[in-house]
Structures are given as structure tokens and as C-alpha cells.
Design brief:
The chain has about 375 residues and is an alpha+beta fold. The chain has helices at about 55-65, 80-90, 90-100, 155-165, 165-170, 175-205, 215-245, 245-250, 250-330, 345-370, and strands at about 35-45, 45-50, 65-75, 105-110, 115-125, 130-140, 145-150. It is about 60% helix and about 15% strand. The chain has a seven-stranded mixed beta sheet, sandwiched between helices.
């Protein structure tokens, strides 16, 4: 999506120029303090100095007429941000936001100072997850300050691309802002592709009956919602910048770049909105399929229970039938001297007939009730 003028590789050795206060070429370059990623002072789009600290940057900016300082920070200390705030008269509320982070994308104007919050995104293939990072920009007459709270986006690449085309960088802090916006929105494209692939996999899992599908749908839905919170508010930021074209006399080249960013951002937002609706539908379908599977299981359990009850009935019926002759035989097998029918000639036949009669009566009774 980036403009061709931003993809030309920088000249060999570009960006390593030192100011007049630097040591000679044979000496080792001093290390930058922690939190300061890069600092450069530009005149007419060309890097004239590469200070190694904030104090050196302030001094170089005062010495170079018409210069613009571009200071890149990553997780800076409160002292570093306070030093920048004092030098460039940064608004207190915006400074607190930059230190504490956890802000939604927004654009705020404090007099001549512009404060912009962006949320970059990166898709992690190994984890199949989306990683978000917060980026703050302060822009004012003669300075650009970028404060990152994560590993993305790669602002060093943005700096190299702009340094490779001084005519664009000479347009001032707005050129840096629009190039950073372009980079952030460019980074959304792989995220959209990764989420789309995850949704395709989830559809396969849902219709394949994967029991873990619901959990993954929920996790992916959260990532999509977070992505929406990163991309959708950015539309208002772009609209606000577009609305100030005429008022602030924005260069036509920068207007064209921002319109390109707005077009691609709109496409991303529409795709992400579609993902959210699609995941809601998939969740509904998955709930229906799970419910159907549970109903089938309940029917199977009910049928098995019915069959088991039938077997219990049969066993109970035969047990009752067999119990009757056992009871009669037990009574007549008792060792008593005076018992009815013991001396009767037909007593044995009577006992046997009684057994058969009771068994037949029980059999007919259980048969009629469906137990046999």
C-alpha cells in the first residue's frame, strides 16, 4: 500500500552522519541512552546530525536554522519524557497519556502541537494470535516525537524510507505522521489475512465436531473486537486530518498519501466488521450443532434406559414366576409332624398342580402387562 516514493532504498551509508561535535571516524560511536532508539535533526529533508542524547538533540536543533528534530523513543523513562515536555512545551495531559499508555486511537490538538495515538497490530503465526502495540506521536513546529510501547511498527524502516526521499521529508512533521500512519495501516493487512485463515479453520472444526471449537471461537472473537478497537477509531483520526487540509495548507502530495491511507483503512475496517458478524454466525451454528449432538446423545441414553427397564421387567417377572413353586415346595418340605395334606393320597399331585397353577397365573398376568 505504501507509496513508491517511500520504498526506494536509502543511499549506502545514509543516516550515519554525525554532527560537528562528534568524534572522528576512527573512534567508536557513543551509545545512546536506554529508551532512545534514534534521534536525527533534518534540514530540507536531509539528515544533518545524529545526536546520541536528548540534550545533544536540543543543542543541534538550536544551531541548525530551519531544522526538524525527529526523536524516536521506546518505553522511555518519565525523566526522558519530562525533558522533552519542558523543551517543546508539550501539553501535560498528553504527556501523561504517553507515559501511562493504554489509550484508544485519537487525535488531539493543543495549539501548535498535535498529539496522535495509534494502535499497531501484528499477526503471530506461531501462536495464531494478534499482538497489539501502542504508538504516540507529538508533532509541532520543528519536531516529531514518537513513543512506542511495543515492538511494532518498525519505525526505523519508516525513517529510512523518508530519508531516501528528502523532498517528502522536507514537507515537515506532517510527512512523518502520514508515513507512520501508512506503515501502521500496512501492518493491518497481514493481520486481516491471518484472521481470515483462522476463521476458515474454525468453520472446518465446527462442522467436524471438534469439542474445542467453542473456546477458539471465543478467543478469536476477542481478538477481532480488539482489532476493531484499534482500526475503527483510526478512521476518525484520518477524517480529522483530512478536514484540516485547507485550514493548515497541507501539501498536495501529503493529501494524496492520506487519501490512500484512508481507502485502505476503510477496507480493513469493513473486513473486520464482516469477521465479527461471521464469528457470531459461526458461534450460533456451533451452538446449534452442539445442541443437536446433545439431543442425539440424550435420545440414545433414553433408548438404552428403556431397553434396560424392559430387561429388568423380564428378569423380575421370571423371578416372581420361579419364586411361587419354590415357596410352595419350601412350605411342604418343612419337618413338622402335624401338617395338612401330608397323609393325603393326592397331596403330592395337589402341590405340583398348585405350583403350575400359580406359575401359569403369574405368566398370564405379566404377559398381559407387557413384561414378557
Amino acid at each position: 500500500m505504501a507509496d513508491n516514493r517511500f520504498v526506494t532504498p536509502p543511499p549506502e551509508g545514509f543516516g550515519r552522519r554525525l554532527d560537528e561535535h562528534a568524534v572522528d571516524a576512527g573512534a567508536a560511536e557513543p551509545e545512546r541512552p536506554e529508551g532512545l532508539v534514534d534521534s536525527g535533526v533534518y534540514v530540507d529533508g536531509v539528515r544533518r546530525a545524529s545526536p546520541v542524547g536528548l540534550a545533544d538533540t536540543f543543542r543541534c536543533l538550536q544551531q541548525l536554522d530551519g531544522g526538524m528534530a525527529w526523536i524516536g523513543l521506546r518505553r522511555p523513562s518519565r525523566a526522558q519524557v519530562a525533558s522533552l515536555a519542558a523543551e517543546f512545551q508539550l501539553p501535560e495531559l498528553a504527556v501523561e497519556d504517553a507515559i501511562n499508555a493504554h489509550q484508544r486511537p485519537k487525535l488531539e490538538r493543543y495549539g501548535d502541537t498535535l498529539f496522535v495515538v495509534l494502535r499497531a497490530a501484528r499477526y503471530l503465526d506461531a501462536r495464531e494470535a494478534v499482538e497489539f502495540a501502542e504508538l504516540h506521536l507529538f508533532l509541532g513546529p520543528g519536531f516529531v516525537i514518537t513513543v512506542r510501547h511495543g515492538g511494532t511498527p518498525d519505525l526505523a524502516a519508516v525513517r529510512r524510507r523518508l530519508e531516501a526521499d528528502p523532498t517528502v521529508l522536507a514537507l515537515g512533521p506532517e510527512a512523518v505522521l502520514y508515513a507512520v500512519l501508512d506503515r501502521v495501516v500496512d501492518g493491518y493487512a497481514p493481520v486481516v489475512a491471518g484472521l481470515e485463515n483462522d476463521i476458515d479453520e474454525i468453520e472446518t472444526e465446527v462442522f467436524g465436531g471438534d469439542p474445542n471449537a467453542s473456546r477458539r471461537i471465543y478467543q478469536l472473537s476477542r481478538e477481532v473486537i480488539q482489532f476493531q478497537r484499534a482500526a475503527r477509531p483510526l478512521l476518525k483520526v484520518v477524517e480529522a486530518l483530512s478536514g484540516g487540509f485547507d485550514r493548515y495548507g497541507t501539501d498536495e502530495e501529503l493529501r494524496r498519501l492520506l487519501r490512500d491511507v484512508a481507502d485502505h483503512l476503510t477496507q480493513v475496517v469493513e473486513r473486520v466488521d464482516g469477521f465479527r458478524h461471521l464469528l457470531q454466525n459461526i458461534l450460533t451454528v456451533n451452538a446449534t450443532l452442539v445442541s443437536q449432538a446433545q439431543n442425539e446423545e440424550m435420545r440414545s441414553l433414553t433408548a438404552a434406559s428403556f431397553e434396560q427397564n424392559e430387561e429388568v421387567k423380564r428378569v423380575s417377572a421370571w423371578a416372581a414366576i420361579l419364586f411361587a413353586p419354590t415357596l410352595i415346595g419350601t412350605v411342604y418340605g418343612m419337618n413338622f409332624t402335624h401338617m395338612p395334606e401330608l397323609d393325603w393320597r393326592y397331596g403330592y399331585l395337589f402341590a405340583v398342580a398348585l405350583m403350575f397353577a400359580v406359575c401359569a397365573a403369574l405368566y398370564l398376568l405379566f404377559k398381559r402387562r407387557g413384561w414378557l
